[in-house]
Amino acid sequence: MPEQTAFPHRRVGLVEDHESVAIGLSVMLKDEPDIELVCIATTVSEMLAQNVSLDLAILDLRLADGSSPKSNVEELRAAGLETLIFTGAENPFLVRSAARAGVLGVVRKSEPTAVVIDAIRAAASGRQVVTTEWAAAIDGDPGLDEVGLSPRQLEVLELYASGEKADRVARLTGLAPQTVNDYLQRIRQKYAAAGRPAPTKTDLYKRAVEDGVLPIPERRNLGRNLTLTNNDLQ
């Protein structure tokens, strides 16, 4: 009989804050001789603190700690770990944010078990995992045009769109109040030029959420967040 080709043994970790999903993935992988799920954590920092040797991090796109996909992927890559996103039906802006940070691919939680396992096996071996959903989120949506904000503009947007007044943003960033206002004007101009106008503070909040600058609010808090920004348009 011809000898069967064995896959190399790979060790993976999961960052996921829903227990049912973590249990489900554990069950999926328990009979795979070449893939070992060696750690589960609810945040990236918690997983890295376990200090275990891994070939791949499997990361949920949205976590309860409010972290952005981009910052999570960057933190994992800084620790020498490649990442596969394991997600439900999500905002394409967040998928694109993770993709820009350098993930190996995106696989949906709704995919058949065999598809999920194949994606994990490929990513754990360092191969790209290209799916239709990922390609569509990155390339197919005309509303995904980047606005090209500088790091300083992103800092101002994050603070202002989260509810801070312009003078408070100035104090937090060490910028002059007029400079903050100039940044905000330029940010609005860039969004308008990209076909994603943001004339009000509420609009800036929405754009910041879309682009992964701010986390998507929990459903129960959504109305409160929008009320805050509507009451603070100056």
Automatic annotation (TrEMBL):
<dbReference type="GO" id="GO:0003677">
    <property type="term" value="F:DNA binding"/>
</dbReference>
<dbReference type="InterPro" id="IPR011006">
    <property type="entry name" value="CheY-like_superfamily"/>
</dbReference>
<feature type="modified residue" description="4-aspartylphosphate">
    <location>
        <position position="60"/>
    </location>
</feature>
<keyword id="KW-0238">DNA-binding</keyword>
<dbReference type="InterPro" id="IPR001789">
    <property type="entry name" value="Sig_transdc_resp-reg_receiver"/>
</dbReference>
<dbReference type="GO" id="GO:0006355">
    <property type="term" value="P:regulation of DNA-templated transcription"/>
</dbReference>
<protein>
    <submittedName>
        <fullName>Putative NarL family two-component response regulator</fullName>
    </submittedName>
</protein>
<dbReference type="InterPro" id="IPR000792">
    <property type="entry name" value="Tscrpt_reg_LuxR_C"/>
</dbReference>
<keyword id="KW-0597">Phosphoprotein</keyword>
<dbReference type="GO" id="GO:0000160">
    <property type="term" value="P:phosphorelay signal transduction system"/>
</dbReference>
<dbReference type="Pfam" id="PF00196">
    <property type="entry name" value="GerE"/>
</dbReference>
<dbReference type="InterPro" id="IPR036388">
    <property type="entry name" value="WH-like_DNA-bd_sf"/>
</dbReference>
<feature type="domain" description="Response regulatory">
    <location>
        <begin position="11"/>
        <end position="124"/>
    </location>
</feature>
<dbReference type="InterPro" id="IPR016032">
    <property type="entry name" value="Sig_transdc_resp-reg_C-effctor"/>
</dbReference>
<dbReference type="InterPro" id="IPR039420">
    <property type="entry name" value="WalR-like"/>
</dbReference>
